[in-house]
């Protein structure tokens, strides 16, 4: 899938049972908004292109996974509200989810994810 556009998709993680609901934020407006003003998220959001994030004005802690151009996880960490994350030079996309979700999904450095269209067989 790509080039990337704002919308919904499915995040497919090797070893995880079933797809994870994914929102894609590809426009500058959607990337700027991200998870601001929300009380939580079901699934994840992917900011693209993106190499760094912050959690200023956020209401909850998040897991952040930095992905390279092949959608391979470069780094994962949890950020509390009011923090500025480091820029990851190899990152092209950033996944955000509620804190604890990525560990439960098995998302870790080296894992390569796939982005699919909802309702299609993968």
List key phrases describing it.
single chain, 9% helix, globular, 2 helices, 122 residues, 7-stranded mixed beta sheet, 7 strands, mainly beta
What is the topological layout?
Elements: E1 7-12, E2 20-25, H1 28-33, E3 44-47, E4 62-67, E5 73-79, E6 93-98, H2 101-105, E7 114-116
Parallel strand pairs: 2-3
Antiparallel strand pairs: 1-2, 1-7, 3-6, 4-5, 4-6
Describe the model:
The protein is built from 2 helices and 7 strands. Strands 5-4-6-3-2-1-7 form a 7-stranded mixed beta sheet. It starts with 6 loop residues before the first strand and ends in a 6-residue tail after the last strand. It is globular, with a radius of gyration of 13 Å. It is mainly beta and 122 residues long.
Compact summary:
The protein has 122 residues and is mostly beta strands.
State the end-to-end CA separation.
12 Å
- Structural Rg: 13 Å
Looking at the structure, what is the overall shape?
globular
Beta content = 25-35%
* Structural class estimated from helices and strands: mainly beta
Please outline the major beta sheet.
7 strands, mixed
The string of secondary-structure elements, in order, is EEHEEEEHE
User: Quick check: average pLDDT?
Assistant: 91
Number of DSSP strand runs: 7
User: Order of strands side by side in the largest beta sheet?
Assistant: 5-4-6-3-2-1-7
Weakly predicted, low-confidence segments = none
If helices are DSSP runs of H or I spanning 4 or more residues, what is the number of helices? 2
- In which range does the helix fraction lie? under 10%
């Amino acid at each position: 899938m790509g080039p990337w556009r704002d919308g919904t998709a499915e995040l497919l993680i090797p070893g995880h049972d079933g797809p994870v609901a994914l929102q894609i934020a590809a426009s500058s407006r959607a990337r700027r908004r991200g998870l601001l003003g929300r009380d939580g998220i079901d699934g994840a959001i992917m900011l693209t292109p993106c190499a760094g994030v912050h959690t200023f004005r956020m209401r909850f802690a998040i897991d952040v996974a930095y992905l390279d151009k092949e959608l391979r996880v470069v780094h994962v960490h949890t950020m509390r509200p009011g923090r500025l994350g480091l820029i990851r030079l190899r990152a092209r996309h950033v996944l955000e989810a509620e804190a604890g979700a990525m560990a439960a999904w098995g998302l870790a450095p080296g894992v390569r994810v796939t982005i699919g269209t909802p309702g299609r067989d993968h």
